UniProtKB/TrEMBL annotation:
SUPFAM superfamilies on file: P-loop containing nucleoside triphosphate hydrolases
The name this protein goes by in its record: ABC transporter ATP-binding protein
Sequence segments annotated as region (Disordered): 1-38
Domain of life the protein comes from: Archaea
GO MF annotations in UniProt: ATP binding; ATP hydrolysis activity
Residue ranges of domain ABC transporter in the record: 40-270
PROSITE patterns: ABC_TRANSPORTER_1, ABC_TRANSPORTER_2
SMART domains, A to Z: AAA (SM00382)
Organism: Halobellus limi
Length: 271
């Protein structure tokens, strides 16, 4: 059975459950459908690489409009989790429900089309292209005609409009990070995942990214942000999920996480 067929079938089920109260909802519709606040829910999500279990039966959910930070030590499974959600990795076991649909078997491209965007830790901009040309790349996959206005809007959103003709190779590391966030946000995803967006940045650059991320959230975008910098997490997060050895260790608001002795000792490097 193809991914396209699975998606169509799931869409039909989701629509039926909205239009006919007598129709039993699918698991995806029950978890993330129109009668819930939840936009993303994993169910016993597991990823194994040979004998290594990187993600171990994780039930993770996030509400629409939320800004959630995902923290934990190196090797906890944070990046693997994002790659499972975006389809870069195939799940070994479990399901991924998004906006009323079971997306577990869908390709990365199809998940992007449905409103899931991602920016990985290392900028992957094209050095030889200008800032504007980099933003054009994701937009031209879905848009036709003159893209000058949406390109300008995307660059203005991340404070790079004046650098539109600048080659990406000439941008600072912080500017490249903002450019890639702008590229991911240009398609107006409902859910945007950011993997360590302030790694290697100065204090001033971190504040710029914090402002950008909170503005995107205020515009209605749901965000999951992986980050080690607890001060940055404190600056942006609604809630925090702590991963440990591929499993959820703690969840709560930032004050609860900061006050948790085991979290401080194990994840924040305090004794």
């Amino acid at each position: 059975m193809s991914s396209e067929y699975d998606a169509s079938e799931a869409d039909a089920d989701a629509v039926s459950s909205r239009t006919d109260p007598g129709v039993r909802k699918t698991p995806a519709g029950q978890a993330t459908g129109p009668d819930t606040d939840t936009i993303l829910q994993t169910e016993r999500l597991t990823k194994r690489f040979g004998g290594l279990t990187a993600i171990d039966s994780v039930d993770f959910g996030i509400d629409e409009g939320e800004l959630r930070c995902l923290i934990g030590p190196n090797g906890a499974g944070k990046s693997t989790m994002l790659k499972l959600v975006t389809g870069r990795h195939e799940a070994t076991e479990g399901r991924i429900y998004y906006d009323g649909i079971d997306v577990t078997e869908l390709s990365s491209h199809e998940r992007v089309r449905r409103g899931i965007g991602i920016k990985f830790q290392a900028p992957s901009v094209f050095d030889s292209l200008s800032a504007a040309e980099n933003v054009r790349l994701p937009l031209q996959r879905t848009g036709d005609g003159d893209l000058s206005e949406p390109i300008a809007e995307a660059l203005d959103r991340v404070g790079l409009l004046d650098e539109r003709e600048t080659p990406a190779s000439d941008l600072s590391h912080g500017q490249q990070q903002r450019l890639e966030i702008g590229m991911a946000a240009a398609l107006s995803p409902s859910l945007l995942l950011l993997d360590e967006p302030v790694a290697g940045l100065s204090i001033e650059e971190r504040e710029e990214i914090a402002t950008l991320v909170t503005e995107l959230n205020e515009e209605g975008m749901t965000l999951i942000v992986i980050e080690h910098d607890i001060d940055f997490v404190d600056r942006i997060a609604d809630r925090v999920t702590v991963l440990n050895q591929g499993s959820i260790f703690r969840e709560g608001d930032i004050d609860e996480i900061r006050a948790d002795e085991e979290v401080r000792e194990i994840y924040l490097g305090e004794t």
